[in-house]
Amino acid sequence: MSRGALLKIGDEAVEVLRKQDQIALTEMVVWQEVDRLITKRLRLPTYATWKRRRLKMLAQYQTPEHWGIDPNAMLVRALADSSDRHVLVAGAEREGPALYLAARGCAVTAVEPAEDAVERVVRAAEAAGLTERVRGYCADLGGWAPDVELHGVVCSPTAFAGLTTQDRARVIEVLQSATVDGGVHLVETIAAGTESMHDGFPLEELRSRYRGWTISVEKTVGLRETFMARKDFAVA
Length: 236
Hints:
Shape: elongated
Order of helices and strands: HHHHEHEHEEHEHEE
Strand order of the largest sheet: 3-2-1-4-5-7-6
Radius of gyration: 25 Å
Strand content: 15-25%
Structural class: alpha/beta
């Protein structure tokens, strides 16, 4: 809005107030009237209306369907009680899991080597009003380590792309060490028996890396499987 338009609204506010019963035409009263006129002209919602719309939107964000996630997916079930916990989403080329978990109250760290993918996650978080719950790192898992304790780790097949067997072993060990007792790791992998393993993590290799954890595997869409490992509680 231009300076001239603002001055015109100010003059109009003064004229409106002069026609009303006023003890004194103070600057504060004029400012309030200017705010009222601007709100009316721009058709801005009241705080009560904004709050009602915001709460409705947040409720939608907390549903997995809003982010294209199956409500029965292992991600939804395994991390249902992760509010106020820290979750790593690696291979964050799909922003849905990161934003869904953030909307559910998680502190989310999204790691992806592609800069545009990280920017997309951060922009989506900003648009959803979830910026303070999502932080992004442009890095691959082979050269990155968590700086907080993790309640959950969610990895897409591309999270381990380009890593050697030794690199994968080291990454898994680092993530396991950073995970609290009772925490879960979810890895989407290629179904056993397929030839295209270059973008995923072999299931049998995963099983061997998570010995001592409680393991389960579920079929997902296409040739994918979701591998889940829960860290057992240490015996006192």
